[in-house]
Design a protein that fits this description.
With 120 residues, the chain is mostly helical. It has 3 helices and no strands.
Length: 120
């Protein structure tokens, strides 16, 4: 009976999926001709020239001077983060070991109590 219900449900699902589909070719929707034409129409009427950035002049020298300082600062920050991560990992490990010992002691105590009960 369960197999019959499973087959009936699977066939119903298959028919429902096939009824929702279409036989159109999906590759026709993404052809270059149909995609590029609307984009060209959108920017075709632009006649203005790009504006110059007044703040951009003279920044090349500043970038070159600060590149070494930035790399050193990033390296120092990475070392600090690595040290903090290692310390946190050691703290977690210590807590796990502590919990494991506590749980292990509980299990040993239970086993001893069971043996005592059996012996009595």
């Amino acid at each position: 009976m369960k197999k019959f219900v499973s087959v009936a449900l699977a066939s119903t699902a298959a028919l429902a999926l096939s009824a929702c589909g279409t036989a159109e070719d999906a590759s026709a929707d993404a052809e270059a001709e149909t995609v590029e034409v609307p984009a060209e129409e959108a920017v075709g009427d632009v006649t203005e020239e790009p504006a110059a950035d007044a703040d951009a002049a003279g920044t090349e020298a500043v970038v070159e001077d600060t590149a070494g300082d930035t790399a050193a600062a990033v390296a120092a920050e990475a070392d600090t983060a690595a040290d903090a991560g290692a310390a946190a990992a050691n703290d977690v490990l210590a807590e796990v070991e502590k919990a494991a010992k506590k749980e292990g002691n509980k299990m040993v105590d239970k086993a001893v109590d069971r043996v005592k009960k059996e012996v009595e």
